[in-house]
Amino acid sequence: MIERRSRLTRILTVELPILVIVAFAIAPYVWMVLTSIKPDADITVFPVRYLPQQVTFGHYQVLLEQTSFLGNLLNSLVIALGAVALGLFASIPAAYAFSRFRFRGRQVLMTQFLVINLFPVVLLIIPLFVMMRSLGLLDTHLGIILGHATFAIPFSVWMLTSYMSGIPPELDEAAMMDGATRLQAIVLVILPLLMPGVVTTGIYIFVTSWNEYLFAMMLSGDAVRTVTVALQLFIGEFTVQWGLLTAGGTLVALPVTILFLIVQRRLVGGLTAGAVKS
Amino acid sequence: MQFAMTSARRHLLPYWFLAPALLIELAIILYPVLQTAWMSLHDYVLFRPNNAPFIALGNFIRAANDPVFWLSLGNSLIWIVGIIAVQFVLGLGTALLLNQSFWWRGVARALVVIPWALPSVIIGLMWTWMYDYNLGVINDVLLRIGLIHEPIAWLARPDTTLPSIMLALVWQGFPFFAVTILAGLQTVSRELLEAAEIDGATRFQRLRLVVLPSIAQVLATVLLLRTIWVANSLDVILVMTGGGPGYASYTLPLYAFLEAYSSMQFGYGAALSLILTVLLLFVVYAYVRRAAAAEIAK
Q1: Longest dimension (CA), chain B
Q2: A2 to chain B nearest CA, in Å?
Q3: Nearest residue of chain B to residue A239 (CA atoms)
Q4: Can you list the domains of chain A with their CATH numbers?
């Protein structure tokens, strides 16, 4: 027992301040969702009418039926899943190398995966545009997936190495002693134990790719426009149509909010493991 | 002979496992970075790529004489220092509060994290809507409680634009500070805290003399990561104002991006982004030096 305080002091010094902070954190979100279900008459009055007089899903209907938004959602989904696949494909073997071997250049290579994360996006985006243009990958799913791999791969190598280092090497060594090949040891022993880490990393890549805007804008045209780019264009097109815009915002934000809430605890653990340990 | 072969092959094994990640990186990160360096030394304009004369440090000299560059750099400084300072204080406060026990702590912790999950475009959209001159909820609230007497065009006035966007970014980023610092706080030794309390340390003394020193390494790492992230982030500005009004919300990465994207001045944009990178490397260097010094002091 560190300290005994009365219930009232606790409410005043802890619960009330945290309530204010939570309100600050979710107010813009709530306001967006609330705007999206109001009829236009309730949106365009000042002083502001806080609660809708009547709830409507009309904006969602217009957005999905009369604009390209559904197609944009699909593009974002394909690209995010592609980024997850490419990120995991490249980083699981890399994490295996870092956690199971001691070799020349290991430290340097590990550090560069961290440092590369810190490069400004603008530094990469200009030459990547030129490169994708000459390869004919502009405005294709693959082009944007490769753009997103610039942050997905370094991040997942880092995360998965820390997860894999937590799996005792004796386990897969024992399997190999008993006659399993290296590949069998990886697939049958390590991967099942690594699953929580793979899921967390995969979801994080998915969320970052889904949310990403600059690469998607620079590397896409009309054919594979993502939701974030489409939404930004809508802002220009439908300046006053806040109902439509907030409906789009809600549709984009909802899935990532849910995914993020699922993984956030483990994610913070993985991200801070290095910092906390040292 | 055969043994030597297998041993050499075993030696190469980790590199094979690393090959996919390294090759992709080489193609989409290292090669582009080198190309940026090459472009920065040329007068490279997108629509005439075959006529890009070598101009040595011409682009960098141009930056030194470019008032917009200096203005963007100044704005970037305000941007970084302002956002990081407020995020840090707010994040630390939130973490300390969430480290107390109360019955709805789990819910509070989950809700606070939400802004971190959102795309910058949505953040730009939400806040543009709330800052709206005619229909915005921020003007409405401030008018109702009497803090202002007429609506303010937050994103159209040169003096309020940058701070307004900075608030949106503070909102987006403070949860990251909060949860990482919270993870650090949970490693602070209970025995040490209790001993300090028995010795008569006040709450504030315990925070300053026990808690903060124990999480110094976490704080430094979070500060470094966030500084770099905030320094590089330009999408919220791009969505909310595109840099305007005038150059009021130009920051260095935004200027570099707009030079390439809107003006097709790839050479100059590349030079500007290289300047940004070098400036950030100094920050990383200072951090590594500090971390090394701390290591030696142990």
Answers
A1: 89
A2: 6
A3: B129
A4: 66-277 (1.10.3720.10)
Q: List the single range of A22-26, B74-78, B178-182, B214-218 with lowest mean pLDDT.
A: B214-218
Question: In this complex, how many residue pairs, one in chain A and one in chain B, have their CB atoms less than 8 Å apart?
Answer: 280
Binary contact (B33, A127; C-beta < 8 A): yes
Distance CA A24, CA A15 (A): 14
User: Best of A124, A126, A129 to disrupt the B interface by mutation (most B CBs within 10 Å)?
Assistant: A126
Kindly report, residue by residue over A107-162, the tens digit of the pLDDT. Answer: 888 888 878 877 888 888 888 988 998 899 999 999 999 999 998 999 899 889 88
A264/B179 touch (CB, cutoff 8 Å), yes or no: yes
Q: In this predicted model, what pLDDT tens digit does every residue of B22-70 receive, in sequence order? A: 999 998 888 888 888 888 888 888 777 677 788 878 889 888 888 999 9
Q: Which CATH superfamily is domain B39-297 in?
A: MetI-like (1.10.3720.10)
CB contact under 8 A, A242 and B232: no
